[in-house]
Amino acid sequence: MQRITISVDETLATSLDSMAREKGYASRSEAVRDLVRGGLEQWHGEAHTGEHCVANLSYVVEHRVRALPQRLAEMQHAHHDLVAARTTVFLDHYHSLESVILKGPTQAVRAFADAVRSERGVRFGAVNLLRVQPDDTHNHADDHVHHGRKHLSPTL
């Protein structure tokens, strides 16, 4: 393991300590490592195209916007190759939270997420993207058939 020394102002150090305590980290170093991993993964997701990913797209739908739920369903059906699953949580009479699990080429996943988030009546859209490497190699003795599917191993 390599040692990296950084200097931060008092406010940032206090915030880091609060976050580490609240999330149950044993040390500042563990908290910083987790933050760096997350930042690097976000940078990789934003900076690299052509690679594969899995992603969670979450957003709030305002059902009073004319035909919005139908448009979103049609978009998801049109991109059935990217959409792995979808769940809906009803928040009140007019809003629901949708979470869509996506997988496929990073550029296509990003384009789909951007199209959904730009729909009128979609609020608070966010994407959590995880780069993966499609792979058929095995490090275990069990033979099995993938039926045209590949393992999607996380990468960093």
Sequence-ordered SSE layout with sheet pairings:
Elements: H1 10-23, H2 28-47, E1 52-62, H3 68-78, E2 83-90, E3 95-105, H4 106-117, E4 122-135, E5 151-154
Antiparallel strand pairs: 1-3, 1-4, 2-3, 4-5
Helix pairs in contact: 1-2
Task: Offer a concise description of the structure.
The chain is α+β, with helices and mostly antiparallel strands and 156 residues long. It has 2 domains: 10-47, Arc Repressor Mutant, CATH 1.10.1220; 52-135, 2-Layer Sandwich (Alpha-Beta Plaits), CATH 3.30.70.1150. It is 37% helix and 31% strand.
Termini separation: 17 Å
**Helix fraction?**
25-40%
CATH class annotation of the largest domain: Alpha Beta
How is the CATH topology of the largest domain named?
A: Alpha-Beta Plaits
Low-confidence parts, pLDDT < 50 over ≥5 residues?
Answer: none
Shape: flat
Number of helices: 4
CATH superfamily grouping of the largest domain: ACT-like. Chain A, domain 2
Q: How confident overall, as mean pLDDT?
A: 87
Count the beta strands.
Answer: 5
Name the strands of the widest sheet in spatial order.
2-3-1-4-5
Strand content: 25-35%
Major beta-sheet overview: 5 strands, antiparallel
Determine Rg (CA atoms, Å). Answer: 20 Å
> Could you spell the SSE succession in H and E letters?
HHEHEEHEE
CATH architecture of the largest domain: 2-Layer Sandwich
